[in-house]
Write a structure and sequence with these properties.
Layout (H helix, E strand, L loop, with lengths): L1 E5 L3 H13 L3 E5 L2 H10 L4 E5 L7 H10 L6 E5 L4 H9 L4 E4 L4 H15 L6 E4 L2 E4 L4 E4 L2 E2 L4 H11 L8 H8 L8 H15 L4 E6 L3 E6 L3
Parallel strand pairs: 1-2, 1-3, 3-4, 4-5
Antiparallel strand pairs: 6-7, 7-8, 8-9, 10-11
Helix pairs in contact: 1-5, 2-3, 6-7, 6-8, 7-8
Bound molecules: calcium ion.
The site of calcium ion (CA) has 5 residues, from loops.
Length: 223
């Protein structure tokens, strides 16, 4: 899953991004409100972590603008310690959660996962397609109850597919989920990941189906 982190304190942004990447997420990092607003308008994010005090446009304005456009993705605000009015203001503008600085990375990670579980997984801890199961708590896939070893790119592709059961995902949509803003998004590379994933799923009761010119779909194979 791809998320956006907007934080102008660079060392903090880096450590938060690292923690969230370690949890299996694709993370874009931006440092000001105007760039954040642009990215939120053009990219497809599952969640945003938004600092309140940002250069050029503050986090409240970015949030208000986002909700004004009808976007419902979960937003976690980072507020200064003890600023109760900031928290209330953020929640009134449509933030889903907030965390006061300084915070523990493990708490941020837990809250991000909880928000994703609610929004993307409809409250479920696990997603399942035939013999394949994705657990949001451990951020791991299992196949026939055995851990499935995947590279981070393969995992991102498989996550995108299992999150949309029965729906065809185009190469471009998959590339959007797999590559961050600072990477060259290559739809053709998706073919390679799909090829490798098929090998890893071989013989199991789940498969990736190709729809020529349209994209891919994950489906259970009935025995
Ligand atoms: Ca700040």
């Amino acid at each position: 899953m791809r998320i956006l982190l907007v934080e102008d304190h660079l060392p903090l942004a880096e450590s938060v991004a690292q923690a969230l990447r370690g949890a299996g997420l694709t993370v874009d990092v931006l440092h000001d409100g105007v760039a954040a607003e642009h990215a939120l308008a053009t990219e497809d994010y599952a969640l945003a972590v938004l600092d309140v005090g940002l250069p050029r446009r503050d986090g409240f304005e970015v949030l208000a603008h986002l909700r004004g456009r009808g976007k419902t993705l979960p937003v976690l605000m980072l507020t200064a310690r003890g600023e109760v009015k900031d928290r209330v203001h953020g929640l009134n503008l449509g933030a889903d959660d907030y965390l006061a600085k300084p915070f523990e990375l493990t708490e941020l990670e837990a809250r991000v996962k909880a928000l994703l579980r609610r929004s993307v997984l409809g409250g479920e801890q696990q997603q399942r397609c035939g013999a394949l199961v994705y657990d949001l708590g451990t951020q791991r896939f299992t196949l026939d109850e055995q851990p499935l070893t995947l590279t981070s790119r393969e995992q991102a592709v498989l996550q995108a597919l299992i999150a949309r059961p029965g729906r065809v995902m185009s190469k471009e949509q998959l590339a959007d989920q797999v590559f961050g803003l600072d990477e060259e998004a290559s739809p053709d590379a998706i073919e390679i990941y799909i090829h490798r994933l098929r090998k890893k799923l071989e013989g199991a009761a789940v498969r990736i189906v190709t729809f020529r010119g349209l994209g891919y779909l994950l489906e259970a194979v009935s025995e």
